[in-house]
């Protein structure tokens, strides 16, 4: 019997013993229900967190390998089962290496007040308002950079965390302000080259290096900033705002698509839709507010 099958048998033996104890002592049923609920909730939060990260495809592959390993044992495909069992045994080390950033982040959360946020507790009530204010500040900064034809690249984090991208730059952790954003992109200053990352309503880092898009059909005629914006929007769900140094035009990269030559109001509407309405809800009141704002701008 291989190691993998032995572990499965041990697991089912433990569950059987658990059920036997419950039948002998009905009071343990409450403990059993709580046990199941806690494990189920932790599993749900883990899967939900994984779906919003770049490791989701890897997890799907791992689940597939586990299923094939079990089936190969049932149908007695001995060579395949032996190979997969060896892989599963030593694959744990590979998993620790692959998921090292995520594991480190989870352990850090256990020792800080971020642990409550992992379970959805203690979220700021004014987070929606704060996000809107940050969007307005980004739009003001983009407009100023556009007017002065100063190149800029602003990445707004959504569900997928960008800690690995932030590590390529300089950590700042400052409140979002138009003045600071503009100053960070002043030519020939130490942090002007690269992107700034806005995460959790903070300017988290500056001078960050982004992955470049290599789509030859799309990148013709585009500069490095636009290619970087497309690259980060394809690899993550982040939204990148680009200000061209040559033309002063403002563009947005979202889901691998570049929307070019935007006015300040159009930029604001796209950011509100993707960072506020999609996150906090899309009720009729918010739709009316958005439509009213558009009508007023058209009248002006």
What is the spatial order of strands in the main beta sheet?
2-4-3-1-5-6-7
The SS-based structural class is alpha+beta
Beta strands, count: 7
Give the overall form: elongated
Please summarize the sheet with the most strands. Answer: 7 strands, mixed
Q: Helices and strands, in N-to-C order?
A: HHHHHHHEHEHEEHEEEHH
Strand content: 5-15%
What does the average pLDDT come to?
Answer: 79
What does it look like?
It is elongated, with a radius of gyration of 25 Å. By secondary structure, it is α+β, with helices and mostly antiparallel strands. The termini are far apart. Helix content is 60%, strand content 13%. Helix 3 packs antiparallel against helix 4, helix 7 crosses helix 9 and helix 7 runs antiparallel to helix 11 (264-280). It has a seven-stranded mixed beta sheet with strand order 2-4-3-1-5-6-7. The protein has helices at residues 3-24, 28-51, 56-74, 78-98, 100-110, 114-118, 127-147, 163-166, 178-184, 224-235, 264-280, 284-299; strands at 152-156, 170-175, 195-199, 202-208, 239-243, 250-254, 257-262. Residues 108-119, 121-125 and 284-300 have low confidence and may be disordered.
Summarize the structure.
This protein has 300 residues and is of the alpha+beta class.
Pick out its properties.
300 residues; alpha+beta; 7-stranded mixed beta sheet; 12 helices; elongated; disordered C terminus
């Amino acid at each position: 019997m291989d190691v993998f099958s032995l572990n499965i048998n041990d697991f089912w033996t433990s569950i059987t013993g658990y059920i036997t104890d419950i039948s002998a002592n009905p009071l343990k049923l409450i403990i059993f229900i709580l046990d199941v609920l806690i494990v189920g909730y932790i599993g749900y939060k883990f899967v939900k967190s994984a779906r919003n990260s770049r490791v989701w495809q890897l997890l799907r592959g791992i689940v597939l390998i586990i299923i094939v390993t079990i089936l190969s044992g049932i149908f007695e495909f001995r060579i395949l089962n032996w190979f997969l069992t060896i892989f599963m045994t030593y694959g744990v080390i590979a998993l620790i290496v692959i998921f090292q950033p995520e594991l480190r982040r989870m352990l850090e959360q256990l020792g800080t007040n971020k642990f409550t946020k992992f379970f959805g507790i203690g979220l700021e009530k004014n987070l929606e308002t704060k996000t809107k204010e940050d969007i307005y500040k980004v739009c003001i900064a983009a407009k100023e950079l556009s007017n002065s034809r100063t190149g800029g690249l602003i990445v707004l984090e959504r569900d997928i965390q960008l800690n690995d991208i932030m590590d390529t730059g300089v950590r700042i952790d400052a409140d979002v302000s138009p003045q600071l954003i503009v100053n960070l992109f002043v030519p020939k200053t130490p942090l002007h080259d690269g992107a700034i990352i806005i995460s959790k309503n903070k300017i988290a880092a500056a001078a960050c290096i982004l992955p470049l898009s290599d789509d030859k059909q799309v990148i013709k005629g585009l500069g490095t900033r636009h290619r970087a914006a497309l690259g980060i929007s394809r690899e993550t769900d982040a939204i990148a705002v680009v200000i061209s140094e040559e033309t002063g035009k403002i563009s947005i990269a979202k889901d691998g698509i570049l929307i070019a030559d935007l006015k300040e109001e159009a930029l604001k509407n796209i950011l509100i839709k993707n960072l506020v309405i999609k996150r906090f809800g899309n009720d009729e009141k918010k739709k009316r507010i958005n439509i009213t704002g558009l009508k007023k701008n058209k009248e002006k």
